[in-house]
Amino acid sequence: MPRLTLTVNGQAQDLDLPASTLLLDLLREQLGLSGSHRGCDTAQCGACTVLLDGRAVKACNLLALQAQGAAVRTVEGLAPAGGWHPLQQAFSKHHGLQCGFCTPGMLMRACAMAREDVPAEPGPVSVALAGNLCRCTGYEGIVSAVCEGLTVMRGEADHA
After folding, report:
1. 17 and 67 share a domain?
2. Helix residue ranges, H only, 2-139
3. What is the CATH number of the domain that holds 56?
């Protein structure tokens, strides 16, 4: 079996696993990180989105071995100890979730937007979220939450 070495949410991992193991399966089944959800298995819905070296990727169609030596961040690694990440606060404030199934992927995609310099405006945020689907909210609350979260993350507003 191939050996995989990577960092997940700041924790070094050194594992033997079948070459066919998907990153999503590694996270959920072997590491017990169930925040990333299996939705479509075709990289269309974004429920499985995680950060790979800061880039948003769909973990359902990425082999775990493709993350060799990389840093993976899941929704479990988003919030600081004992607190909420600014995006989580904004999702709560703007009612950016209902059933919550898509929320982890939306949060991780939004984190990547900060690095990508997506403007904290409804139009660009909506375009950047196009690969993440929600069947419950109608997106208005999600877009508002991401705009506010990006603003706070960039220090353009207080964390209140």
Report:
1. yes
2. 23-25, 86-93, 103-115, 122-128
3. 3.10.20.30
